[in-house]
Input
Amino acid sequence: MKWLLLVPVVGSATAYAIEGGDIVGALVQLADGIGEGFVALTLGFAVAPAGIGFLVGGILLLTLGSFVPVSFEVESLTVISRLANRDWLKMCYMVLVAGILGFILGLAGVYGNIVDFIDGVVLAGMLTGVGVILSLVAYELFKQDMIVGGVSVIVAVVVYIPLVDDPNGLVYALGASVGAAVATALILRNFRPVVPVEVDLSREKIRFIPLNRFKFLYDPMVIRGALALLALRVGTSIAYGTIDGDIAGAPDAVNVDHVNITSGISGATSALFGGPPLEPIISGTAPTPNPIMAGALMMFAMAAILLLGFLPKMAAHIPAATISGFLFLLGAFAAFSGNVGGVVSDDQPFAGPVTVVVTAATFDPFLGMVAGVIVRFLTGQLL
Output
């Protein structure tokens, strides 16, 4: 069965079809969003405010006609929480500044030039370094509960390896690993206490964060975090946007500036009420009959779940170690192994490795990118 929805698209009106496959794809990706929402709670973010960001993002997705939805993204959540030392307000300020800057840059259409500037070994090095960061965080969560975490990692790897060439392999592995780990935790709770994801319910209220006369704009750590998030988004916009476009069968239709406009406004809206960043993702909605509509459906459904307060209630019964397997997959398999091959080239033997080391050592993709660009320039002058 097919339905039609008339949506205004940049001054005109477009009729989007909705088919059964779109609903299935949206539900599959919803499982991914819920799993990564647990990561957000684990790292100290509030998630209810992100519901407003998802709602705004879904509208933008339809308005701009973008194949690339935005959602919780473990890479950005991890980097921001690390740089802010899990200081909730500082994390919100970082996301807010990055969102506004990303929107302005996207509106000005400069992302294409940025992509051209850092493309190659520096970009590959930055994403490889992020893979190391995610793997380290996965290990930390695993140590919190080695039985539940071990089940999560083993099931994730066992499910993912046969599906490594399947565009939805990560989504299936996420569902299987989290499901198996949750089942293990529920069984074990009869024999021992379970340490659930810690949730500060006072942050889950929808209200503006205190802006304190914008004094955070002078905080070097806030600016550093915002730049790190922007640098990471450049990489994910290219990598994830390209993958989504290829899967959807329309690689040339992906507009990097539109992706950053959507992500920037969604993230800034989320942060303004106390929520985490919303970033481009590899989406299970890409192979659906109508990927734009499917992506928007997923985002609207996620908005409803968050605004109704369901996610923290689920997290109260689930240990954080349940998502260690998915983090490990994203870090070791998707980010690291997917990019490490491009870190070194014949004409640039040093810039990529330096980017990897600095990114991983500082947990800061922006510093890694800057270091890589400097080394690329110096070696270009000397070699």
